[in-house]
Specification:
The chain has 7 helices and 7 strands; from the N terminus they run H-E-H-H-E-E-H-E-H-E-H-H-E-E. It has 240 residues and is α+β, with helices and mostly antiparallel strands. The protein has a single domain, classed as 3-Layer(aba) Sandwich (Aminopeptidase). A 7-stranded mixed β-sheet has the order 1-2-3-4-5-7-6. Strand 2 and strand 3 form a beta hairpin. It starts with 6 loop residues before the first helix and ends in a 24-residue tail after the last strand.
Length: 240
């Protein structure tokens, strides 16, 4: 369900940088969000992973805190990367993030890769995720990065996977003819869909598919002409 932002709830949410001491609580939150056991299930961040993220690239790790309880209710994580539109990263999410350890982080990378962004089920639909995303966009601008690259899990596709091919599904979401709980929101934040990624996630909700999404930084200085050499399957999102 999508709600209009609840200003009362949003006003009690603080977005701040992740700290090493948040790691254990983030592991618990991860289990709640993804219905997994981080200590046993593959491709699920543990407390040790989160401590590593803070060490690798502290500027792009954020949490959402309910200030009335002190509870962590959301998180977002990023790393820097080199992105060449002619050779887009089409491997699995787990491989892209160095099996959770961000060993693939490029300290001099010109782009930010959105590693993860998630919100506790009880706080979804109120704009918390949007504020976490804005925190990452602020880092992109402050560091004068060229933009953000991410993989979007098309989390409603499995429900219709036996009816339409994934290419049709994504094209309809991009055209606004179909709503996907994840991809549609990211398109409205200014991302554009570039290419479908098979075997992106071991997730039955997506039938394993992800979509490579990109959002350029219009404030990058000096201005750099975006390069889209034959890899953009879909047009730029006019909402950028």
């Amino acid at each position: 369900m999508t709600h209009s932002p609840d200003r009362t709830l949003l006003n009690q949410i603080e977005i701040r940088l992740t700290r090493s001491e948040d790691a254990d609580e983030l592991e618990v939150l991860t289990g709640i969000i993804y219905h997994c056991n981080p200590r046993e299930d593959a491709a699920c961040f543990t407390a040790d992973h989160y401590r590593q993220h803070v060490q690798v690239f502290p500027e792009a790790q954020f949490v959402a805190v309910d200030t009335t309880t002190g509870q962590l209710v959301g998180l977002t994580s990023g790393m820097r990367m080199h992105y060449d539109p002619a050779r887009p990263p089409l491997m699995s999410w787990w491989e892209l993030v160095g099996n959770g350890w961000l060993t693939t982080h490029e300290p001099r990378g010109e782009w930010m890769y959105g590693v993860e962004s998630a919100v506790h089920p009880d706080y979804r639909g109120y704009g918390v995720g949007s504020r976490l995303m804005d925190a990452r966009f602020n880092v992109v601008r402050e560091m004068n990065l060229r933009g953000m690259v991410a993989g979007s899990a098309i989390i409603d596709y499995a429900a219709v996977a036996d009816q339409i091919p994934v290419e049709t599904y994504v094209a309809e979401v991009v055209a606004g003819e179909r709503f996907d709980t994840n991809l549609s929101k990211q398109l409205h934040k200014g991302f554009r869909a570039v290419q479908i990624i098979p075997n992106y996630l071991p997730d039955p909700e997506t039938a394993g598919y992800g979509v490579l999404i990109v959002c350029e930084n219009p404030q990058v200085h000096p201005p750099q002409k975006a390069q889209h050499r034959g890899t953009g399957l879909y047009p730029a999102n006019p909402l950028l």
